[in-house]
Design goal:
Blueprint: H1 7-22, H2 43-54, H3 73-85, H4 92-105, H5 108-119, E1 125-128, E2 144-150, E3 153-163, E4 173-179, E5 189-195, E6 201-207, E7 213-225, E8 229-230, H6 236-250, H7 255-270, E9 272-273, E10 276-277, H8 282-319, H9 327-352, H10 370-381, H11 388-399
Parallel strand pairs: 1-4
Antiparallel strand pairs: 2-3, 3-7, 4-5, 5-8, 6-7, 9-10
Helix pairs in contact: 1-3, 3-7, 4-5, 4-6, 6-9, 7-8, 7-9, 8-9, 9-10, 9-11
Length: about 400
Amino acid sequence: MDFEFSQEQLDFLAEVERFLDENDDPEVFDVTRENMAQIVDTPKRRAFMKKLGQKGWLGMTWPKEYGGSEGEGVYEYLLNEALAARGGPQIGKGVGIIGKTLIAHGSDFLKQKFLPMILENDVEFAVGYSEPNAGSDAASMKLKAVRHEQDGKTGWLLNGQKTWTTSAHFAEWYWLGTRTDPDDKHHGITLMLVPLNHPNIEIRPIWTMGDERTNEVFINDVFVPDEYVVGEVNKGFQYISQALDLERFTMFTFSPIKQRLDLLTDYVRTETRDGKPLKDDPVIRARIARLHTDAEVARVMGLKVVAESVKGEKQTKATGKPTPPPTVESSEYKLYATEFSKRLANAAMDIAAPGSQLRVHTEEAPMKGRSESTYRYTVIDTIGGGASEIQKNIIARRGLGLPKNF
């Protein structure tokens, strides 16, 4: 497998870096927000992403008939990694989860309504899968949807609760998993698009250990017309599963991990303890060497997902038939990268000693307090997009062919 980028791809990356230099703004880019830096939650961040849309960089892999340029997925990868390296918002769920699912399964009405807005970054989505009793096991969701008629329209009446909906307090539309058949766990879920300003939707904040806001959402007698149902009724879990393969890779970029590793390495290179350079301590040297080795493994695993995605794109173009995303490779990368990110955070706390517990942005703290914030944030990363235990099950069943109860 060739992990080298072509000259054309390197030229694109250079263009992206120039664009980021020209639009550098501390209110848009903040590496200390770690993985949560990717969300587009302020007016300045939205304006920045709109500039990306004007450059034609949103939806690059989409078909031309929907406003894309049918580019290879490697270009989205290069763009997202460059954005993530600076702590900037990323192309995320609108282009990936929602946009690509609508292209594959959405009605003409939904495509015409939402795809142009996504390409221009004129809309933000929240994703509603998790519930109090349905976290990583999305098939256990219970938010009830029953057939209903209102104001001469047929549709669905929704009642229930979602939780851990990170973008609900600033997004306009809810990408919502609903239970339309209570008797079939995996074939009784339907995806719908619901406006978040609906008067019967209540949003309450939940603050995470990473100082970021997520939300619980209460839905009471919310009517959704049939035209806002995504794809076929009761096929939602299958659509969600496909989209989660994209989320597991695009949500957890490698460049922020590498940036934190470089920060720790520079600290070890220049700091002393008891009058002796840290870099001369054989235990610390061994630990840093192992971290760099593991980082290279994570980087190459990410490139493997890109390579498999590009291979699938070429196969789709050649045969005209959709090719499934690289499920196993995505889970392998997500599991390894996020667990490695935790190990890196632990190492930074150990090496920086008691001073590592000072809060982020404390000037006199080792690495300005970055260690303690990453220690808190990285726990969240092993849960979002499917917890590590879920990734292990996917790898075991789909990759190794093991039975469900082994």
